[in-house]
Amino acid sequence: MESAPSQTDFLVIGAGVAGLRAAVELAAAGTVLVLAKREVTDSNTQWAQGGIAAALSDEDEISLHLQDTLEAGDGLCNPQAAKVLVEDAPERIDELIQWGTEFDRQGTKLTFGREGAHSRNRILHAHGDSTGREILRALYAKSQTLKNISVREFEFSANLIVQNGRVCGVHLINEKGEQQQTTASAVLLATGGMGQIYRNTTNPAVATGDGVAMAFRAGAEVSDMEFIQFHPTALYLKSAPRFLLSEALRGEGAYLRNIELDRFMPKYHPMGELAPRDVVARAIVHELEVSSVKDPLVYLDLTHLDADYIKKRFPRIYSTCMQLNIDITADLIPIRPAAHYAMGGVRTDLEGRCTLPGLYAAGEAAATGVHGANRLASNSLLEGLVFGARAGKTMRDELRHAPAGSSEPNRAVSNGPIDTATEAVIGELQDLMWQDVGIVRSGPRLKAAIEQLSRIAPRMAHPQTRRAHEAQNLHALGLLVARSALAREESRGAHYRTDFPAHDDAKFLKHSIVKGDSIRFA
Ligand SMILES: Cc1cc2nc3c(=O)[nH]c(=O)nc-3n(C[C@H](O)[C@H](O)[C@H](O)COP(=O)(O)OP(=O)(O)OC[C@H]3O[C@@H](n4cnc5c(N)ncnc54)[C@H](O)[C@@H]3O)c2cc1C
């Protein structure tokens, strides 16, 4: 296996929608090295089912998309960022189509689905429920036509290199456990989500938030970390992963039923099953808590919908559930909420610049403020596209000479066998986060979680393997989420505290910003 080059013009860490879109933008200006820690197909992008939002249908307007985005964000969206998102959307989608993305159509016309908290049908989807996979396929194919781009799989980025206050490269660990450094004019973090800080998550195993943790360690500001979106409907079978059951199912008319088989959402919100995700997730938690049954369940019910249509519209969900002996057209589907999306991340401006010179971020790893306190469904693939392109353009415009690559010989560290101590501490952390820093929070439990996280810190202090680096990153992120959640003494969007159940606009209509040990609201 050839090692990664020691120098490149641009380094893009992450090969999901944000990283690949940025790479395409950068290719005209210099060499671009795109890194993925596993296969290119292993990312949150690959798993995105429901679709991508854009005001493109005849019945829609950009101003309505903006209004829905701001409403979902519960007062905390950065309005400029949200405006950029919805205004850039049509052009970015057109481009994707030109590059070969096959969105679903009826005849020649694009078809638009509906999801929670959208006032119009505006969700483009591909192969029914494989939208992310199709976008990734097309972007990757496009990147392969550009000779300046090289994509390297199984290259794990462990830490940023900072020289004279400027980020200029990264320490890598390859598949064999060999370390090396690669330097660059600029580094883009497009490392995706951090769902793995929780026991129950829809995110794949790669979603350990490495980019956010690396940036924080290097001294960058992170923002809005308390806002984690919990998806209400993940499949809940003891022996199976928490497979996502897309919101689009409820968009097509699926009901939620409690253990008594009653439809309960209408009593929680006028939009019923299409209420914002945080409302639905908390309603489910409440239904589970008040049930007199031991180990109760909540169900998603599609049995009243047209079976042939459902099979055609959701082929991936249908076949995955069938493999687990659930026929979604005939059976009730057991579900529970699961951690799904991080609204916060590395703080950036509208052009993807972080607070450390030389460092940029885009996609789920970034906090542009576009989602505020809660993300509108199907706005995140779009965010990756729009802000990936913008970050790429800025990095291109700000190109300078990369410092010389290091001639330091590679040092081998171990990558295996599976270290049971590391797995055990990750499991402890995930349980703790789920119980005390999850959907329903309170001051005493958040304080207890922070104390417990501080106690387990020494067990992750000196990582030697890729997995141990992930553990250290999960720990850093867990603490950031807990500290930010404790500091925000109100409830807003996806952040709910029983001891402060209302908004406090006077104090908290602001973003939380953490740098090192200090936390502020601005
Ligand atoms: C099940 C599921 C369904 C979803 N459905 C939708 C939907 O319908 N619509 C929507 O808009 N959004 C959806 N989302 C959210 C959306 O998929 C993500 O927010 C988006 O794809 C993130 O893209 P990204 O490019 O930022 O990161 P990702 O696609 O997650 O890519 C991250 C990349 O970073 C690499 N990486 C990470 N750490 C390192 C490291 N240390 N070193 C090297 N490489 C690294 C990974 O290998 C990967 O290539 C869904 C998410 C999930 C999990």
What does this structure look like?
- Helix content is 34%, strand content 18%.
- The chain is built from 15 helices and 21 strands.
- The strands form five sheets. Strands 1, 2, 8, 9, 10, 11 and 18 form a seven-stranded mixed β-sheet that branches. Strands 19-17-12-20-21 form a five-stranded mixed β-sheet, covered by helices on one side.
- A hairpin with a 2-residue loop joins strand 9 and strand 10.
- It is globular and about 65 Å long.
- It starts with 6 loop residues before the first strand and ends with a strand.
- The relative contact order is 0.18.
- The structure holds flavin-adenine dinucleotide.
- Residues 13-19, 35-38, 42-45, 47-52, 131-132, 155-157, 190-193, 202-203, 206, 210, 244, 341, 363-365, 378-381, 384 line the site of flavin-adenine dinucleotide (FAD).
- Residues 13-19, 35-38, 42-45, 47-52, 131-132, 155-157, 190-193, 202-203, 206, 210, 244, 341, 363-365, 378-381, 384 line the site of flavin-adenine dinucleotide.
